[in-house]
Amino acid sequence: MSKFAVFGAIVALTAACSQENDMDDQTVAAPAETEAAPDSLIARAQTLNAPVAERRPVEIEQVGRTRVDNYGWLRDDNWQEVMRDPSVLRQDIRDHLEAENAYYEAVMEPTAALQERLYQEMRGRILEDDSTVPEADGPYAYYTRFREGGQYPIYARRQVNPETGEPEGDEEILLDGDAEAGDFEYLDFGNVDHSPDHRYLAFGVDTRGSEYYEVRIKDVASGAIIATLTDESTGNFAWSNDSQTLFWVWRDDNGRSKRVYRQSIDSAEADLIYDEADDGFFVNVGRSDGDSFIVISTSGHTTSELRLIDANNPTSDPVLVAERETDVEYDLIEAGDRLYFRTNADGAVDFKIVEAPMDAPGRENWVDVVPHRAGTLINTAIGFRDWMVRLERENALPRIVVRNLESGEEHDIAFDEEAYSLGIDGGYEFAVDRLRFSYESPSTPEETYDYDMATRERTLLKRQEIPSGHNVEDYVVRRIMAPSHDGEMIPVTLLYHRDTPVDGSAPLMLYGYGSYGITIPASFRVTPLSLVDRGMIYAIAHIRGSMARGYGWYLDGKLENKINTFRDFVSAGEALIDQGYTSRGNMVAYGGSAGGLLVGAAINMAPDLFAGAIGAVPFVDVINTMSDAELPLTPPEWPEWGNPLESATDYDTMMEYSPYDNVTAQDYPHVLATAGLTDPRVTYWEPAKWVAVLRHERTDDGLTLMRTNMGAGHGGASGRFDSLRETAQNWAFALMTVGLADAEVAALAAETSAEAEGGE
């Protein structure tokens, strides 16, 4: 889009929104061309005029408190319909979002060649025709793969040689993601799973990004879709053992998973078997490790409840395991001929494992098997006929523990790097001695192993291939401990090139999340390497609100303790300065969703730490969102954040850190916010409102940008390469804010000019 078209869009918006505008909110005309070109990308961008959102103040009274929301009009009252059909978005809101996109494009236009280079670098690290290691299930081995240039996965299988156990013969394609995508702008699959008799394939499809999925059944032999069960599913379902019955989860008009239905694949009618009455609980369905049970799980953030259905008798009634009890969680592991539960019952803060008979799983029959050990979090566990395997975390490092069910003997699988990530996979088959696990670190591409739990031998099956080349020795991985405001030590994982000076001169990207107990692993990612190879240090702060140092680490970063999350992040930045990794004002804060909340709170608290800040689909309008009970995640998330509709204490706690409500008249770093129009998790109006108030309040001439994907939801672009383009845009912004983009952009422009002259 030309600069004239950009400003045309902005002027059109201003005309549409000019009534009742404050005088200081008026958009001025585009500046005249300057005689001399600006000396940096930032300086050039500062000559462009941003769109200005109209301020329409609304006074809100709540729990004895009053606040004013100037930009609440950006929330379309018809948002539920917008999730299903984006074309119905109110016109004044659409005009504003499109003007923001036009301004973003105008600012970032000089970096187009840099974005393309970043995109090609990242794409060059992806094996385009990659595939997973086949996983045996009886007569077949199942896997996913990509074709050269393909955006979406292909689900396939081969027959297994019964003598060697290896897949052989012709490939049978079960589901072709690229073909399903067709002309759709967005595509996401929910569950994709074959029936136990291998005859059918069930899969969920979302083509809007709104997370409403159709559930389709495909006859594998003919390739025909024999049934579409629903278009109101979460995409979550489970087969019963008769291969004729599917259990699927329904999503209501507010986007909440509320019901479980049972449906024969040859019937148009579905039977309701579970209906969750509490809006604070979500519903899911799955199968136990040994396929003995269909498991209906209902859970809030810190409370869970399970019901079991005999998978061999799908019409039987669900059996409740243990009634929900506030702040008590439990989940099921089927191992051997017994049931096990990972639970925090009886004060087991970091969880323990208990066992119960298969026919009497109630809590009154639970017996401790793996006792609680404070500071050692039992993260997850899976079961086999003769083994149980758990993934633990202690002091932000994971380990795999294998338990022999007969003897009770346990052993660990050991690793050496300072920081790394592990994953375990139970596979399809139960009566085996083989565990499949993965290992990776920020510098080490993922390695997939088969591990013989009896002989303790590991076999490398696959090492992630980096087509453009990757030398592990070129990179340094470090784990430091950063003191926080109250003396707690925050683990921070660092990745940098061996040639990057550690003298305070290097720019740094500080990434964090810190909510819901989600722990960001020290894993290998191809995207940060494009920053690291340009001299940036990439750091992950394992702050409170995660479970990096156990469940208590999570509890110390939620509800009334939430402020610790943001202080930890700021403290991590300060420690990185103190230890000579970077300098003040030479960092970029980066986080998405609740991590965007982190970014927004951090730049309110310590704006001078950062040169730039990227909030990807940021949850920044905390008070208003947690007061809007219609939104999909609000009631379920009151245990995480508090309920400001009923508690003045919760209201005051949120008001202390809510990014949107704490923007003040001060200098801020350059800011980029992203949004997805059909995002049901963090609605588009949160970043839109945040950008509007930042632009109005900031006292400097820094950039405040917003980019909305008008055809996607929370995850942004859905194709594996399209998503890289969005990352390339973010990285170009980050490099621009720390001054690393100017020389490269100039060099790329010179190359283009030389090529053009050579062509003449």
TrEMBL record:
Entries under InterPro entries matching the protein: AB_hydrolase_fold, Pept_S9_AS, Pept_S9A_N, Peptidase_S9_cat, Peptidase_S9A, Serine_Peptidase_S9A
Enumerate the spans annotated as Peptidase S9 prolyl oligopeptidase catalytic domain.
523-737
Q: List keywords of the entry alphabetically.
A: Hydrolase, Protease, Serine protease
Q: Which SUPFAM superfamilies match?
A: alpha/beta-Hydrolases, Peptidase/esterase 'gauge' domain
Keyword Hydrolase among UniProt keywords: yes
- What are the residue boundaries of the Peptidase S9A N-terminal domain, all occurrences included? 57-463
Q: Respond yes or no to whether keyword Iron-sulfur is given for this record.
A: no
Q: Which PANTHER family did the record assign?
A: PROLYL ENDOPEPTIDASE-LIKE, PROTEASE FAMILY S9A OLIGOPEPTIDASE
Task: Give the family this protein belongs to, as stated in its UniProt record.
Answer: Belongs to the peptidase S9A family.
- What is the protein name for this chain? S9 family peptidase
The species is Hyphobacterium marinum
- Identify the taxonomic lineage of the organism of origin: Bacteria, Pseudomonadati, Pseudomonadota, Alphaproteobacteria, Maricaulales
